[in-house]
Amino acid sequence: MNKPFKTPLAAYDPHYDPLVSDGPGRNRDYAPTYWSATAGAPPEDDGAITRDIDTEVAIVGSGFTGLACAAFLAREHGIKPLVLEANRVAWGCSTRNGGQGQNASGRLTRSQWIERWGLDVAKRLHAEIRDGFETFEDMIRQSPIDCEPQRGGHLYIAHRKRNLDKIAAEAKVLTDVFGEPTRVIGVDELRRDYLNEAEAVGAVLEPRGTGVHPAKLAFGYQQMARAAGAKIHPGSPVIEISNQRGAFHLRTPGGTVKARAVGIATGAYTAPGMTRLLRGRCMPILSNSIVTRPLTAAELEATGFKTRLVLTDTRVLRFYYRLLPDNRVQIGSRSAITGADADHPKHLQLLIDGLHRKFPALQGIEIDYSWWGWVDVSHDMMPRIFRPEPGSRLVYALGYGGNGVSYSAQAGRRMAQMIAGQDFQGQDLPIFTSPLPTHTFSSFRRIGQRMLYRWYHLRDEAA
C-alpha cells in the first residue's frame, strides 16, 4: 500500500493578502493560533495530489464548509468526494476564528431581513438559519473529537446606552415575530450573574449560541468525512478551474483533477485566478485575536466571570470574546487593512486596550497567543450557496461575514444536496437563488474601508 505523498511543510506567511497574492501558497504551516497549538496532531489525510485523477466530485477548500460538504456527500448521497486544500487541513478561517457558533449567518439583523425581503421571506430565512444551528449541534454530537462545546446562548453586550436601546428593540422583534425567546438583561443582573465588564450598560441574551474549539471541530469533520469514504488532499492548491467537454479540470501543481461536479468553499482565501465566477465577489477583511494566560482565582473573582457564554459587544467594529475552558480569555476584533501591515504592533495593542477597558483587573496580563486571519464579507452582508451557471454542477458557498462557525455546517449540507441534485425546503430563498454581488468600484474598496474604519471608530466610541 502506497503511503500518502507529503510535500515539505512551508513556513506560515504572516503577510499573505488574498487581494494581492497569487494564491494562499502550498502546504504552509498553520497560523500561530491557540487553537492549532492545543488541538493535537491533525488527523490522517490522503497526501498531496501527485498525478492526474478522475473523481465524481471535487471540493476546493478544507475548512468547515468543505469538510462538512464532503461528509454529507459521502454519508447521505453515496458520493465519495475528493477534497483539495492548498495548505494544511483547515488552514484558513476554520483554525483562526473565535469559535463562536451563533444563530446567525452574514451581518444583517432580522429587522434588516424584513426590510430587504419582506416578512414571509425573513421568517423562512430564520427557519433555515435555525435549522442550520441544529445541523451544527448535530455535527458536534457526532464528532469523534471533543471540540469543548460551551453551550447556553449568546450574550450581546451593550457598550453604550443608545446601543442597548437598539438591541432591546431587535430582541423584541426576535421574540415577537420570530418566536426566538430573547431577553434583555440589566447591568446589575449582568454583573451579578454573568460577568463584571466595566464598559457594559446591559445586554441581550439570545438562547442559541455555542462556543467551540474550532480546530478540534474541523478535525472532527475531517475524521467523519474520511470515515465515510472522502479523500482529503492537503498541499494541493487549485490554480485554475476550467470546463472542458462537460467535465471540470482542476489544475494543481501535482496533477489535474477531472471531476463531474465541483464545490468551492475557499472563503476569504480564494485565489484570484482560480475562477472568473468568484472574481470580486467577496471583500476579504482581516480580524485579529489574542488569548491570555489562564486567569488566577483572584482574577476570575475581579472580572466577575460566572459565564462561559459566547460574548460580543455592540460596536460596528465589534469585539468578540469569552472565557475558555482552561480559564484563559480570548478576544478578537478588527485588524489591518492589508496583509503587508498585519503584524504592526498597533493592531495587537488595539485588542489589548479593548481587553483592559472591559476588564481593568487584567491590566498587564501576559498574552500567550496572537494571530490574525481573513474573513469573507459579501458586498450585501449575506452568504450564498449558489450555482452560478444554470445546469452546471459547480456550486459555491461563501460570504459568511464572520458568522460562519455554525452555519457553515448547514452550508456544506446544502451544497452537498445541490451537487447531488436533491431538492430541499427553502431552496427558493435568496441566499440560494442569487449570486454573491460584485462591487462597482472593487479596485477602490480598501480606500473606502480605511475611511469607514475611521468613521465607525468615532461613532463606536462617542459618548
Describe the structure.
By secondary structure, the chain is an alpha+beta fold. The chain has a domain at 151-208 and 284-375: D-Amino Acid Oxidase, Chain A, domain 2 (2-Layer Sandwich). The protein contains twelve helices and 19 strands. Strands 1, 2, 9, 10, 11, 12, 18 and 19 form an eight-stranded mixed sheet that branches. An eight-stranded mixed sheet has the order 6-7-5-14-15-16-13-17, sandwiched between helices. The N and C termini lie far apart (67 Å).
Features:
single chain, 463 residues, alpha+beta, D-Amino Acid Oxidase, Chain A, domain 2, 8-stranded mixed sheet, 12 helices, 22% strand, globular
Short account of what is shown:
The protein has twelve helices and 19 strands. It is α+β, with helices and mostly antiparallel strands. A hairpin with a 6-residue loop joins strand 14 (310-313) and strand 15 (320-323).
Helix and strand arrangement:
Blueprint: H1 34-38, E1 53-60, H2 64-77, E2 82-84, E3 100-102, H3 110-117, H4 119-142, E4 150-151, E5 154-158, H5 161-176, E6 183-186, H6 187-193, E7 202-206, E8 209-211, H7 214-227, E9 231-233, E10 240-244, E11 247-252, E12 255-264, E13 282-292, H8 297-303, E14 310-313, E15 320-323, E16 329-334, H9 345-358, E17 367-378, E18 384-386, E19 394-398, H10 407-420, H11 430-433, H12 445-461
Parallel strand pairs: 1-2, 1-12, 2-9, 5-14, 12-19
Antiparallel strand pairs: 3-8, 4-8, 5-7, 6-7, 10-11, 11-12, 13-16, 13-17, 14-15, 15-16, 18-19
Helix pairs in contact: 2-7, 2-10, 3-4, 4-10
